[in-house]
Structure formats: C-alpha cells, structure tokens
Amino acid sequence: IQLTQSPSSLSASVGDRVTITCRASQGITSYLAWYQQKPGKAPKLLIYAASTLQSGVPSRFSGSGSGTDFTLTISSLQPEDFATYYCQQLNSYPRTFGQGTKVEIK
Amino acid sequence: QVQLVESGGGVVQPGRSLRLSCAASGFTFSSYGMHWVRQAPGKGLEWVAVISYDGGTKYYADSVKGRFTISRDNSKNTLYLQMNSLRADDTAVYYCAKCFSEGGCGHGGFDYWGQGTLVTVSS
Prior knowledge:
Distance between the termini of chain A: 33 Å
Number of helices of chain A: 0
Oligomer: heterodimer
Structural class of chain A: mainly beta
Strand order of the largest sheet of chain A: 2-10-9-4-5-6
Largest interface: A-B, 25 and 23 residues
Number of helices of chain B: 0
Number of strands of chain B: 11
C-alpha cells in the first residue's frame, strides 16, 4: 500500500491552522497513524486509528478520515511544532510510511 | 519508564554482516511485538521488519527479505536485527520501536522508539 502525503513541505506562521493530507493507494479503513519527527530525534506517535490522540499529545493536533483519505490538522501552530510529519498505514504488511511533510517557519 | 536503546551500528564494508541490538526496559517486553524502522540520511522513514511477542511471526520489507533476520530473546529483554550481505543503500539510522498493543501488534502505531543507531555501508 502506497501513501502519498501533500504537500511535501509548507511554510507557516505561529498561530496558523495547518492541514496535511495523506492518501492511500487502497482502502485501509481507519488503520492510520501520524508521527512527528524533529531533526536528529526519533519519531513521536501523535495519532493512531486515524483520529485518536496519543496520550500526552496537545489537543491542537487532530486527525480525521477513513478509507483512502486522511488529514492531520494543527489548529494553532506553535514554535515547537516545526518538524516533519509522517503518516503510516497499519492495515497490512509492509507497514508503509508516507514520504513526509516538512513544516517550516514562514 | 519505557526505554529502548539500540546498539551495534558502525561502518561496514559492502557484502559484510552486522548485528544490531535493542535493549528494552520499563515494560513487559515478552508481551509486545517489536519493529525495526530505518531512515537513510536526509530521507524518510522505511519500515524494515516486525516480530511478534513470542517470536513466532515475522514479516520483512521486500528490500531486506532474505538478507536481514529479526529475532528476540525475551529472557534478556532484547531485540535483534541480523543484517547480512549489506549494500550501500542499507546505510541508515536504524530504530527499534514497540507495538502499541499488547499481544499481537494489531493495527496500532509504534508508541515508543529508541534513539537509533547509525549503520554506514562503505568501502
């Protein structure tokens, strides 16, 4: 299963609403996770089952979608949110990742 | 608290072998499936392999199938990745990661990751 994220990168300001899209090449019901990765660090799980917030993750992060189209939204971008975000399908093996979306400071 | 600590990375010549280890603590290791994920320099994440909580089930990415072997020693709380016939395109930071759900990995994400260990394949 291939995952295509868009955009590949974006520039945004603190306080902006940011939306990242992930499209699967075939239906994966709600078996999708989102991760945040900062330079030199391991990825961090943000959302699983498409819309369930991982414990400890700020509520400004939200996920939605099912089937083939998914969205990660950051309601009000904070300085610590500048990072690369990856989606991952958990429907079948191999557990593929999207190519990533880099969120940069405008 | 959950800790995953990888080791065993380094510089290795093409065609040679290397074994990575991931020492786990802070949770009941024998109850969780475990994954390896890699990231080539400046690139995205690539899932490598998974092993079930009891070692009975394993899956691999096509890119490593037949060359890499995932295993675990639940008595030592340690996950392994044996990498044979290494190629330049295996150069990456290798992360171990824990399945979200106890028992079978199911459809949850990877809730804890190690800090990664760098493998460089070069002559």
